[in-house]
UniProtKB/TrEMBL annotation:
Gene3D superfamilies the UniProt entry points to: Jelly Rolls (2.60.120.10), Winged helix-like DNA-binding domain superfamily/Winged helix DNA-binding domain (1.10.10.10)
Keyword tags: DNA-binding, Transcription, Transcription regulation
PANTHER family with a match to the protein in the record: CRP FAMILY TRANSCRIPTIONAL REGULATORY PROTEIN, REGULATORY PROTEIN YEIL
Domain HTH crp-type: 147-221
SMART domains the UniProt entry points to: cNMP, HTH_CRP
The protein's name: Crp/Fnr family transcriptional regulator
């Protein structure tokens, strides 16, 4: 039921979704549609299953004890999320919200856990991906500790461009990014005002252009140089 939808995720998938033999999944339990700004789940709620983005963009974030939001990652087409808390038998330690109108595939936890039991080596693959996730978190912590905000923002723009525009083949057309300055600040551990100031500098230097909340990357090579300047 609806398995064809899994394979039609705009030709994209994460390493986890590639690793799953979807022919062994009994059902895709539902196709869910979320409007921009609508929460998919809340921090502290109990996992009922896992989600795969068919199309759209989702922000994964958590609130610190001081009330500040820490953006963990931005997930896009083909990415699976909500599985870590499910496998850990714990409540969600983060929230997921749609950054644009988004469609996700939902697999109930019983169905998903049965799939893991059936597929030899799949759980090991989850462990590998978890280790990869930890390495990325360590790298992010190192960047926040030692890399100036200018370098962190350049790195973020390149990362988002690679993730959100990786199906674009026309290098003559500037890639565009759509994200609030507050979310960008949350991803690199700074404040919105600093992001605005550095984006203004990048624009004056001809590296990017902006139109409202949209950012157009004009010189990815220069962003790469800035991101590696303090490595």
């Amino acid at each position: 039921m609806w398995k064809s939808d899994v394979f039609a995720v705009n030709g994209q998938s994460s390493p986890l979704t590639k690793a799953v033999n979807w022919n062994l999944v009994e059902d895709i339990d539902d196709i869910l549609h979320f409007k921009k700004g609508q929460y998919i789940y809340f921090q502290g709620s109990s996992p009922q299953g896992i989600f795969i983005i068919k199309n759209g963009t989702v922000k994964i974030s958590r609130n610190a004890c001081n009330g500040k939001e820490f953006v963990v990652k931005i997930a896009s087409d083909g990415h699976m999320f909500g599985h870590i808390s499910l496998l850990n038998h714990s409540r969600y330690n983060n929230s997921a919200v749609a950054l644009e109108d988004t469609t996700v595939l939902f697999i109930h936890k019983t169905n998903f856990l049965e799939t893991i039991k059936k597929q030899e080596g799949l759980f090991e693959h989850f462990i590998q991906q978890l280790c990869s996730h930890i390495i990325k978190i360590e790298q992010k912590a190192t960047n926040m500790a030692y890399k100036p905000v200018r370098g962190r923002l350049a790195q973020l723009l390149l990362s988002l461009d690679n993730q959100l525009n990786n199906d674009s083949t026309d290098e003559e057309i500037p890639h565009s990014l759509f994200m609030t300055r507050a979310d960008m600040a949350g991803l690199i551990g700074t404040v919105k005002e600093t992001v605005n100031r550095i984006l203004s500098e990048f624009r004056q230097e001809g590296i990017i252009d902006t139109n409202g909340t949209k950012i157009y990357i004009l010189n990815a090579k220069k962003l790469l140089e800035i991101s590696h300047l303090y490595d």
